[in-house]
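Researcher: Hi, I'm a grad student and pretty new to this. My advisor asked me to get structures for two proteins we've been looking at. I'm not sure of the right format, so I'll just paste the first sequence and hope you can take it from there.
Model: That works fine. Here's the first sequence with its structure tokens right after it:
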Amino acid sequence: MTHLPRSPLELWVGPEATVSRVGNEYLDQSELSGFASRPEDVARLASLGASRVRFPVLWERVTKALGDEPNWTWSDGRLEVVKSSGLKPIAGLLHHGSGPTGTSLVDDAFPELLARYARQVAERYPWIDAWTPVNEPLTTARFAGLYGHWYPHGRDERTWWACLKNELMGTVLAMRAIRDVTPGALLVQTEDLGCTRATPKLQYQADFENVRRWLTFDLLSGRVDREHTMWKFLRWIGADERDLAWFQDNPLPPDILGINAYVTSERFLDHRLHLYPKEVHGGNERDAYADVEAVRVLGEGMGGFRARLLEAHERYGAPMAITEAHLGCTREEQLRWLHDAWHAAEDARLEGADVRAVTVWSAFGAFEWNSLLTRREGHYEPGLWDVRAEKPRPTALVTLARQLARGEEPSHPVLDAPGWWARSHRLLYPAFGAVTVERRRARPILVTGATGTLGRAFARVCEIRGLPYVLTRRDVLDIADAESVKSALDSVRPWAVVNAAGFVRVDDAESDSRNDRENVDGAAILAAQCALRGIPLVTYSSDLVFDGSKGRPYVESDAPNPLNAYGRSKRAAEEATLAAHDHALVVRTSAFFGPWDEYNFVVHVLRSLRERGEVVAAEDAVVSPTYVPDLVNASLDLLIDAEFGVWHLANEGALSWADFARVVAEQANLDSALVRGVATSELNLRAPRPAYTVLSSERGRIMPAFDSALHRFFRDTREETPTVLGAAD
């Protein structure tokens, strides 16, 4: 008989705290995110209404090398703050790491060394009642012992087993030491619980992987005996029978199973290699096959958290929690992933599973996971807070987490549409099986400016991001006509409006009355009508509101002083918009270029060099080139986060127009010597131009570097359907 667990579903939280090792280089997520240096982050976590925090007391951070005196300064200070905050910690001792210098996952002494450290931690903090000595042991063993990504960089099954055995023996001995100090301490054992599907020919391999995924829990529970499906395999790869018997003699069933699931954890194996690119080809000693994300090929999609929770419930019948719910993606997809995880937990509870909590993970974001921590490129994916600012900026995930913790129904409009993993565009390869997709009715974003570069770009990006939209032409919505605006807003009933319309010809603006009508009057009317209806608004301004005299990058608080009519109209539009709508988002940007139109500087340079052999550009005017897909993606994230006021969005970089042209030529393997730099005065422009309008931000530097943007421009222009999700390669 199914029944609900008695207590409500809890919200837990955790910062991504991995300390990983590649070669002799350690990568510390707490340092990279700034969590290590901000005591006030504990208050941020507590403000969510979470009951527990997965908190790092990591071995490598306390003891850099074996034999060193432990340094408890950071842990002492932070755990005291945690204790007073009301959050109950789940102490983590090893998170995808291999211990301090002087030991490793293949060191026979590793289990005893970890247990010794665990005892030290427990004796210092005896009030901590829940522990994860080793995070995701099987996953870590695969990445460190089988795939070679992390130290000790093994690439064989014997090394994989040595890593896993030592992690799990270390867990047993660590919990024994902890319980000597704190009887009744809970083991919250986490694991990334993937699932593998396959074509019939490869079902045997999928069956093997679907049994192997349980090894963390099965070994700890003393289940791996001679009758266990993995026994013969483990013995075949060199597992000592005495080691296997040790786990049977020293069972440590987890008190709470920590179930983690990611889109990439669900795999599909296909022997039809011709359907897939070579980079996903692999195999075993018997068959060659492609190994891809199941969501990209399975018609029925992925199982996700609900399927994994119910499988674990059927196998163990133990209390469970989702211990990591995080997706590195655009903001609406992050919201949808967390929302889906919460509902998966609730659904599993309705079917009788004892699911205690859902953990919002990577509270302050994560670094370098796009390369599985193997490269140092500065790649960052935000979490609940975005740390690319003077202080962490709360994203829409904070609001969602608080609503979930309070038991409220989440209210963000983007949750009315399914995540990308449930839409048809998820499929990158010929579908295996009948395709099923979720279809929901959701309110749209209204985008003005259907004939312009920015409006069309919003339509493309909204399509990719699964954000319903209505793109309007002037004959449907004239932003400078109040009645037209009222009619469109009342008809479309958008949850947000993006004003991508406006007069853009800088030199013509000196004498064309349409400049003020479209840029000032239209902006003011649209803002007023949106404000009356409580509709969030995004509108665009320009770097030309500045006179260029500062000589350093302009930030949002710098005083505008436009030199030309276009700049004056944009400044007037800023003031009118914010006066009419105090929660409007005004984005200043600069020097568009993009892959989807022919009317931008990069396309002009390429065409001129190929057709005429020369480009003339200003050598004395410095700007921040802005890649349109990056601009649109960042704008949508800020809109979803309910940001307002003035924001600067331009790619990180500063180039003269002439240098911009030279870099473009070099990237295209054209002759950059054909770019002739001249003074702006020689170009005979009607409107005066400032000499320096580089934009930066004091609110958050969320745009990628210009070099990355230009690289992606050339990649995207080569592709029939450019992918603009995600900023940096």
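Researcher: Oh nice, that was easy. Here's the second one.
Model: And its structure:
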Amino acid sequence: GAFLSTLVMKGERPEEIVGFARAMRENSVKLPGSIGETFDTCGTGGDGLGLFNISTASAFVVAAAGGKVAKHGNRSISSKSGSADVLESAGVNLNLSPSLISECIAQIGVGFMFAPAHHSAMKHAIGPRKELAVRTIFNVLGPLTNPAKAPNQIMGVYDKNLVEPIANVLKGLGSRHVMVIHSDDGLDEFSIADKTYVAELKDGVVSTYSVHPEDFGLTLGDLKDIRADNADASLALITEAFSGRNGTAKNIISLNAGAAIYVSGLTTSLQSGIDRANQVLSDGSSQKKLDEYIKISNS
């Protein structure tokens, strides 16, 4: 615990973070076989806003659009429901072997890696982390240490000042196409209610800009409509969006999954990614992906 506190107090430098992330990647339980180029979406958490699991929902939308997602996640640290919690609520079996996760990615385009199973060192960190309940380097390291080494990634961060440095950390780690994001209303996601700051790594260059939902023809929404007090409430919002019902939940998934579709290389622009996300939300194929994943994980 004391070591973490010290790191929090002094703040971490990008090169320190690259070093930590490399060490954790080297010591993680990898996915076997060749699963091709994958995408991960995982935030640092810690935004304290208690929204439903947007990045977890996005993973199934990207898979439905034809991408390959190696989703890395955990139980809740700061929100009411982490990605592991909501998947469990849906009936997903989280205790899959690395080879079965690879098979899921190959067969249906999505696989979920439960962080403590892949980073045994992290098991010892959960105690001090919960105890500190402040943002530690582990909040940042989790999303940087994907065991599938996904080269394409969207990573939400809890502080605007981390956006550009973390994009440079991912560049240092050899990532290919990345967006690091933080919204003006404090989300570690693209916001449907405010502008979002982006640092995009593409073709070896990091560029920074901001986007607004209305830039893409999306209706502004109220974040209190998409708060979830527990995993079941989070799942209910995802199911509603996956049924194609218009509303804030569907719009914020469209925006985030659209960016993911673009970063995965399935479309050439953010706008066309959002259009594709809308299509797979409206035609029911995102729900079909989730159902397939529940089935394959329990087989």
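Researcher: Is there anything I should tell my advisor about the second?
Model: You could mention this: The domain at 37-114+148-297 is CATH 3.40.1030.10 (Pyrimidine Nucleoside Phosphorylase; Chain A, domain 2).
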